[in-house]
Amino acid sequence: MTHLADLPVWAAIPVALFLVTGAALALIGSIGFLRLRTFYERVHAPTLGTSMGIGFVLLASMLCFTVLQSRLALHEILIAVFMVVTTPITLMLLARAALYRDRSEGSGDVPPAPPA
Amino acid sequence: MRGGLMRGWSMRDWLPFPLLTAALVALWLLLTESVALGSILMGGVLALLTVRGFIALDPPAGRLRRPRAACALAALVLGDIARSNLAVARIILTPGKTERVSGFLRIPLDMRAPYGLATLACIITATPGTIWVEYNSANNTILLHILDLVDEGTWIDTIKGRYEKRLMEIFE
Amino acid sequence: MTATLLLWSIFLAQILLVAAMACAAFRVLRGPRAQDRVLGLDTLYVNATMLLLTFGIRTGSTLYFEAALIIALLGFVATAALAKFLMRGEVIE
Q1: Chains meeting A at 3+ CB pairs closer than 8 A?
Q2: What's the pTM value of the predicted model, to 2 decimals?
């Protein structure tokens, strides 16, 4: 753990803060899995982790490695961009699949398919 | 195609999708973590090949008309995501049963530009608390599911006034 | 001093993330429907990505970054394929 001691205080405090905030947001999102009652409510829960949760963790990682290696560590942006692009796709696909399944079972809780 | 005919034509012919190509080169440079001439050349070749492959998929036409407005929209969305993160966190952590209702909401749209619609879908789904469920191209309406559906009018105003108007400026 | 602060905050973040993974795993095991399980699996992947990044900060090795990127990629492909399967009963039409 010697490399952590090399981190100056002005960098260490934000790194610690970002890490804990990001992890806490991910946990709150996942607690939503336990507390929310229907699938369509639960589908909102993971967006906490995939938007700001992972954003804060990536910020902490970027700051940490930039200061330690004394050059810009930017490749965390790749994961951020990847998350921003893919999360809407997976969640939309899942919501549409759930809607399709509910409709084909004739569930009354979802709006009917629009007339073709 | 706007702009000078000769120049615009040859430029687009030689380098179609300049923004996508630049983004792919940037992606390669980030992945290899170097800005050496070799990586730039390799990234450029790979990006050009990828764009050729992308054209083979026959993507719909459309272009980013106002980059500055796009940056302003990105900043706006970032702020909104932060705010709805807090709102959804509060909903999840509030103990006991509340009178919060969640439900589906159908919104008619005016925008038809395919990239604008795709961006709107990403914005709505990436923002905690709202998710895009369905798009009906016959009458141009979208179906959303909203976690905290207190007032339907406010949500319609938010989607149409805040995002759709700006996206139409950018993409149409 | 800073090393202790960082070690403890990394430890705390890891505990929070493991708890988040436990909640997601509960949804995978419990269901009740297939879409709930897939949603839980997707969240499990995202939380694993974050956990790997905290390991990276802890050890100071950038190798964990590559692993995190691959987990994120796998999670996307797996969830997209499963959602497609739920919708139509087949992955490639």
Answers
A1: B, C
A2: 0.86
